[in-house]
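FW: tagging you since you asked about this chain on Friday. Here's the raw sequence from the shared folder, copied in full. Didn't touch anything.
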Amino acid sequence: MAGTAGGRTSPDLSELAADSASPTRSGTAERVAAILRDRITEGYFPPGSRLSEESISGALAVSRNTLREAFRLLSHERLLEHRLNKGVFVRVLAVDDLVDIYRVRLLVECAALRTLGEPPYDLTAVEAAVSTGERAALADDWAVCSTANIRFHQALTGLANSLRTDELMRNVLAELRLAFHVMADPRRFHEPYLTRNREIADRLAQGDAAGAERMLAFYLEDSRRQLTEAYAERLTAR
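HL: got it, structure written out here
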C-alpha cells in the first residue's frame, strides 16, 4: 500500500499497470471499466476511496478522456460517484442499497439453481471458488477469502448459462463487495460461509439442485441480516 488519502490507505497502482499490459486488455473505456470493476470486486479500492485521474490514467496508460468515460460507466453501475469539485470516489453503500442488493440476489441466484435441469452439472468454477476460499482461510487471508466468496456466487449464477444473468450479477456482486468492508471482523463473518459454500457445492454434485436452492435461500437471508445489523451499528456509533 502506498500512503494515505483522506485518512484512507491508498492502493499501490503498480498492479493496475500489469492489468494494462495484459494482451487481453485495450484502451477502450469498457476495458478500463472492466479492470476497475474487477479491482473493486477484489476489495482493492475500498468504499470512500478517491480515484486519482492522474495516477490511474498513468498506471493504465490511457488518456484522461478514456478514464473519465470508464468512470461514467461505473457510476452508472453505482460503483462510483462524482462529488462536485472533489473528484470521483468509490461509493459508500446505504442500508437501502444493501437490502435491494439482497433482494436481487435472492431472485436471481435461487432462480439460477431452480432452473438447472437434469444433473450432472458442470461445477468446475463452483469447486474452484470453494477451494480458493478454503485455502485462503487456512492462510488467514480474509481479503482473498472474501473475493472467493464473490466468485462462488458468480459461479452459481453462471450455471444458468446466460450472458445477461452473468452481466447482471457481475455488477450486483461488485456492489456487494463494497458492503463487506463494513465488517470489523472479516474472519468471523466469512468463516461460517466457507462451510455453507462447500455444502451447497456438495448438494449440486449430488444432483440435488432443489436442496441447494433451499440452503442458498437461508444463506442469503442470514448474510443480509448480518450485514444490515453491522450497518446499523456503524450508524449508531457515529
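FW: Residues 209-237 form the longest helix (29 residues).
HL: agreed, and Residues 16 and 22 are 10 Å apart (CA to CA).
FW: great, closing this out.
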